[in-house]
Amino acid sequence: MDNIIESIEESRKTLFVISKHFVSSEWCKYELEFSQHRFFDENNDFVILVLLEPIPRECIPRRFCKLHKLMSKNTYLEWPEEDDQQGIFWEKLRTALTSQ
């Protein structure tokens, strides 16, 4: 647990790959909850969300209300199903990772 907190605190960016398995994992919930507090406290682009697959809103725990808010504003990247769109995805991710 201490390693997770320290890693998030010392990182310039934290990337979360959101999947159905992610939202059902206790460890992932803890990591997201901690980084979500830092993200909203510092009010910057510290967290990058990648939606790996379509996830119904009801599958995302209610305690992640800020995640719901972020996702409703479309401030996340989606992994494309089409192979020809993956290059665009990687470019968007690279831009997000290198932005200040």
Primary descriptors:
three-stranded parallel beta sheet, 5 helices, 100 residues, alpha/beta
Spatial separation of the terminal alpha carbons: 27 Å
Q: Count of DSSP E strands?
A: 3
Q: What profile does the largest beta sheet have?
A: 3 strands, parallel
Order of adjacent strands in the largest pleated sheet? 1-2-3
Question: Which class best fits the helix and strand makeup?
Answer: alpha/beta
- Mean pLDDT over the full residue set: 80
Q: For this entry, what is the oligomeric state of its chains?
A: single chain
Alpha-carbon Rg, integer: 14 Å
Low-pLDDT segments: none
**Helical stretch count?**
5
What does this structure look like?
- There is one protein chain.
- This protein is 52% helix and 12% strand.
- By secondary structure, the protein is of the alpha/beta class.
- α1 runs parallel beside α3.
- The chain is globular.
- The model has no long low-confidence stretch (mean pLDDT 80).
Task: Write a short abstract of this structure.
The chain is an alpha/beta fold. It is 52% helix and 12% strand. Strand 2 (47-51), helix 4 (65-72) and strand 3 form a beta-alpha-beta unit.
Question: Which helices and strands occur, and which strands form pairs?
Answer:
Layout: H1 2-10, E1 14-18, H2 20-24, H3 26-42, E2 47-51, H4 65-72, E3 77-78, H5 86-98
Parallel strand pairs: 1-2, 2-3
Helix pairs in contact: 1-3
